[in-house]
Amino acid sequence: MLPRPCWPRPVGVPQEGLRKQLPAEKQDAYFELVLYQVKATANLYALRQAEFTNILYAQQGRAAANDLATKAEEYFAIDQELMEHFNTEIADGIWHNFMLQPHIGYGDTERYGSNAGWQQSGLNNVALPDEIFPAVQRIELPETAEMGVAIDGSDQTWPDSTEEAVLPTFSPYQSQPTQYLDVFNRGSVPFSYRIEAGAPWIHVTVAEGTVDPQVRAEVRVDWEEAPSGTTTVPIVVTGADGQGVTVQAVVDNPSVDPGELGGSVEANGYVSMEAADFARAVNTNGITWTTIPKLGRTEAGVEPFPVTADSQEPGGDSPRLEYTMTTFSSGPAKVNVYLSPRADVFAQGGLRYAVSIDDGEPQVVNIQQANGANANTMNRQWGRTTSDNVNLTTTVHDNLGPGVHSVKIWMVDPIVVVQKVVVDLGGEKPSYLGPPKSMQIEPQQADRLQV
């Protein structure tokens, strides 16, 4: 799914207050070791958000692209000021040019060739000048009003796209943010717009007003009034010169007794579960599953201990984590398991775990062999895996029907750390962190069942 563009927020750094509480002789060290890293990183995130949203908006012809280009350049200027302060003023210039290496503009191989690599961004032993790369874009705006419409989950715009405008499916069990559509201006003259839904139980906020340069309208469903089953509702956007765009809202309201639901509930064709949200942890053979808060990219990691335990044969009553989920779809299911990157410290040809659903036979996965991320060869996939701080592997399970199921993650080798489990039933979209965790029925508490 595409990222949700939004206006960058000013960079606020509460660590400035801590600096002022330190004696004068400690403040330079605090800037070197703490404050620079915090401020420069926060500023870089804001810069990248403005930069890449600008590039997308420019491709779509949005008037807002130009404001974002200016915003990105402002953040770049802040970065250069921070770097200059580090290079020339801290500790009377003891770190002269210490932070000179490009950290934003590396990668422009078309302009600088191999000299633009991220490790050696220099030419003739001189650092390349830093810059915003890829460069921000500005567009010429006509002295007219022209409406464009963009929707959640797509990089297309209407009315120019030949594809049908369809919002991500609505579900009473969805956990992702509310679906939206953007009404934007391709010109420099503001215009009025109006959004009308084809059903009284579809609500749009804000449904009418003035676009200058763009408006985000959120779409919500009144589930007490929505009919059961799958319904498609047209949403008509009218703007400049009577231009009209129709957006389809697909509303999936499963006809199911809430008492029949359990665990994490499917929405939009997937079930996403954090590792620590297990329904049951089976501790046998002297092995205990342990939750480690903040380990991983989202909430926590879960690891079997001790790390010196013998490898286990999955199945029967061997150590495992069990996750309860409810599905509405039928057909094959992909179980995507997000693991912490670990090297094959036992030199046995790869670390292993196993996956099963319900009473199915456990499928053993050799993590290193599954995707080639092997620390022993320091290959490109290993570099990508460690950079992402996750090793993603997948198993396929056939003929999964609607109902309540148990997904089991079996221990085979120690030191394997589980971060997240996502069951793709055909609707999961590509994303960096994986989809947000699904809605849970009777959410598990911190003292989850351990046996």
Brief write-up:
The protein has 451 residues and is an alpha+beta fold.
What characteristics describe this protein?
single chain, Immunoglobulin-like, 3 domains, 6 helices, 26 strands, disordered N terminus
Can you give a write-up of this model?
This protein has 451 residues and is α+β, with helices and mostly antiparallel strands. It has three domains: 15-127, Methane Monooxygenase Hydroxylase, Chain G, domain 1 (Up-down Bundle), CATH 1.20.58; 147-253, Sandwich (Immunoglobulin-like), CATH 2.60.40; 259-450, Jelly Rolls. Helices cover 19% and strands 31% of the residues. The protein contains six helices and 26 strands. The chain has helices at residues 15-21, 24-60, 64-88, 109-112, 367-371, 380-388; strands at residues 122-123, 126-127, 147-151, 157-158, 165-166, 180-185, 191-197, 202-205, 208-211, 214-221, 229-238, 244-253, 263-265, 270-274, 280-282, 288-293, 300-305, 320-327, 331-339, 352-357, 363-366, 391-400, 403-411, 418-424, 440-441, 449-450. The strands form six sheets. Strands 13, 15, 18, 20, 21, 23, 25 and 26 form an eight-stranded mixed sheet that branches. Strand 1 (122-123) and strand 2 (126-127) form a beta hairpin. The chain is flat, with a radius of gyration of 26 Å. The relative contact order is 0.11. Residues 1-13 and 443-448 have low confidence and may be disordered.
Question: Which helices and strands, and how do they pair?
Answer:
Blueprint: H1 15-21, H2 24-60, H3 64-88, H4 109-112, E1 122-123, E2 126-127, E3 147-151, E4 157-158, E5 165-166, E6 180-185, E7 191-197, E8 202-205, E9 208-211, E10 214-221, E11 229-238, E12 244-253, E13 263-265, E14 270-274, E15 280-282, E16 288-293, E17 300-305, E18 320-327, E19 331-339, E20 352-357, E21 363-366, H5 367-371, H6 380-388, E22 391-400, E23 403-411, E24 418-424, E25 440-441, E26 449-450
Parallel strand pairs: 5-12, 13-18, 15-26
Antiparallel strand pairs: 1-2, 3-4, 3-6, 6-10, 7-9, 7-11, 8-10, 11-12, 13-25, 14-24, 15-18, 16-17, 18-23, 19-22, 19-24, 20-21, 20-23
Helix pairs in contact: 1-2, 2-3
